Amino acid sequence: MTFKLDLFLITLAVILSPVLSDLIFTKVDRRIDLTSQIVRISSTIRVENEGTDVVSEVLLIFPVEQAKYLSHIQATSNEGKGKAKGSAINFPVNVVYPKEMPPTLKFYSVSLPKGLNKGDSLTFDVFAVFTHLLSPFPETITQADVQFVLFLDTAYILSPYTVKVQSLSVKLPEARIEFYTKLENTKIHGSEIKYGPYENAPPYSFALIRFHFENNQPFPVAQELVREIEVSHWGSVQITEHYNLVNGGAQNKGGFSRFDYQARPFARGASAFSKLVAKLPPRTHSVYYRDEIGNISTSHLWGNLRKTDLEIEPRYPMFGGWRTSFTIGYSLPLQDFLFQDQGKRFLNISFGSPINEVVVDRLIVRVVLPEGSSDFSVSVPFSHKQWHEKKISHLDIDGRPVVVLEKENVVPEHNQHFQVYYKFNSISMLREPIMLIFGFFVLFVSCIIYMHSDMSISKSSPSYLAKLQWDEVQTVIQQVQNIINRCLTIHDKLDASLRDLSRTGDVQACKAARKAADASLKELSKELKSLLSFLQSAQQATQILPKVEELVAKERDLQERLVVKHMTVVDCYEKKFGGREIENRVASQQQRITTLRQEVDDLLEFIDEI
Ligand SMILES: *[C@@H]1O[C@H](CO)[C@@H](O)[C@H](O)[C@H]1NC(C)=O
Ligand SMILES: *[C@@H]1O[C@H](CO)[C@@H](O)[C@H](O)[C@H]1NC(C)=O
């Protein structure tokens, strides 16, 4: 801070005083508004030509230390006031570098529409807006402290001309004033300090004044803001704003206690801000607000026919020096912002941030035009940098043209409308729908093809029925296999009963075993019969049927031979034949049985593999 102060003094100390013309300021009223983070100086100046030559430019001066924070200056005619208010004419203001002037002063030339003749006078207003001119002092504060700032200026307007009568009023926030410079004719009314009137100040006069006062207004500074405005001829203007925001006030030191903050937010963290309000146009819709973590729901939206207010709340209160990055997005109705003029379309929309009293160090506005637009021209009511880019998004063939505008040190006063004119062939507009239609066509065709192939599993289609039947056939064949296996188990039991007989000689038990086996085999053969008749009627089974029938026949054959063998053996036992005799009698039978058993096993295996 002291550094700035020194520079300011040096700036003023080296002033030479070459007389530039015969103009004089007959009356100057200046008002300095220090109630926010932005410094606004309005001056009403009455200028008179005392010389003989016609003069058409008036010079304004700011010390370079101030001028480098100047973000906006405008000069307007004051003549229409009262009678024809609203018809104020803007006078062009340009930076000029008159010869032999110290580099510590910056000159602005106001061009008058009509030259001032000898003796003529004119009243005009100058409105200058500065950022970062209020220096927090002390530079660091704790959560419990209020924020104080310093401001320097001169009580006399810095001017290359004699100033006959002048006065200044400085409006401070309604809070504590630590210090203000008292000169002669200084009066204070509440938070407003008045200097003057002072008479006959020679060119380049100055009188340093200094203010040290409490200012707890929010100091939101977007170090960078990228606004993307995307025009879609299909009905909307989509705006996305990426903020990199810092609280530009006194740095917080000694940490932060959320408990203290929540208990008494105004006493604890007086200069912190927890909310920002964006003033969006009426009929804004599809609003969202998110940061790196995700969507933030602590935002509120309300509006009427004239405006929409979006209140956003970062995840933590913003203390001095603290940063946050977030994005807000919203859509606007196209017809409110896109117009036609002489065969061209033009977008007419506001330039700056919609957030109240935010200072933007670097603003980038990207206007994304529909694909196929050409012949752009841009009309912005203040100086800026400009270039073109391309943006490729889905469905684009060669990308959308993007007009990029960049401006540094942007204040709410820059929230003026600007226009982007472009030519657009309506045929181009059909490109995307044609692509879409083609896409849908392809989709439908694929669907139809798919549906057709799908028919094969439709419930009523023959192939579906065939598949069902095949499933059924398979189930039945499985059941046949099961029954055959059960039969084979019974065969094994019969054999086992013969072995028991040779061991125990119990003929009755053996007969009983055959009886039981007979009964079971009869049951199973009944079941087999019905299964076979199903298979015989099933078209799907024609291939497999002969094998199944063969299996069933062989099993039956096997069964019969087994029973015969059984009876023969039992009979031999009853007749008390010897072992050898019995073996001889069943030998041929036994051979056939072994072969049949092998064939049945093979058939079972074969059918199983289907
Ligand atoms: C955030 O909100 C937007 C708009 O409502 C939505 O498109 C997006 O999917 C949301 N993102 C998350 C992570 O919820
Ligand atoms: C742009 O819109 C503003 C606000 O609606 C309006 O005042 C201005 O005349 C428009 N500019 C043009 C060139 O249409």
TrEMBL record:
Its membrane topology: Single-pass type I membrane protein
Record keyword Nucleotide-binding present: no
Listed GO CC annotations: oligosaccharyltransferase complex
Coiled-coil zones: 507-541
Subcellular location: Endoplasmic reticulum membrane
Domain of life: Eukaryota
Signal peptide interval: 1-21
Biochemical pathway: Protein modification; protein glycosylation
Family: Belongs to the OST1 family.
Record's subunit section: Component of the oligosaccharyltransferase (OST) complex.
The protein's role, per its UniProt record: Subunit of the oligosaccharyl transferase (OST) complex that catalyzes the initial transfer of a defined glycan (Glc(3)Man(9)GlcNAc(2) in eukaryotes) from the lipid carrier dolichol-pyrophosphate to an asparagine residue within an Asn-X-Ser/Thr consensus motif in nascent polypeptide chains, the first step in protein N-glycosylation. N-glycosylation occurs cotranslationally and the complex associates with the Sec61 complex at the channel-forming translocon complex that mediates protein translocation across the endoplasmic reticulum (ER). All subunits are required for a maximal enzyme activity.
Name of the protein described by the UniProt record: Dolichyl-diphosphooligosaccharide--protein glycosyltransferase subunit 1
Organism per entry: Cucurbita argyrosperma subsp. sororia
Lineage: Eukaryota, Viridiplantae, Streptophyta, Embryophyta, Tracheophyta
Gene from which this protein is expressed: OST1A
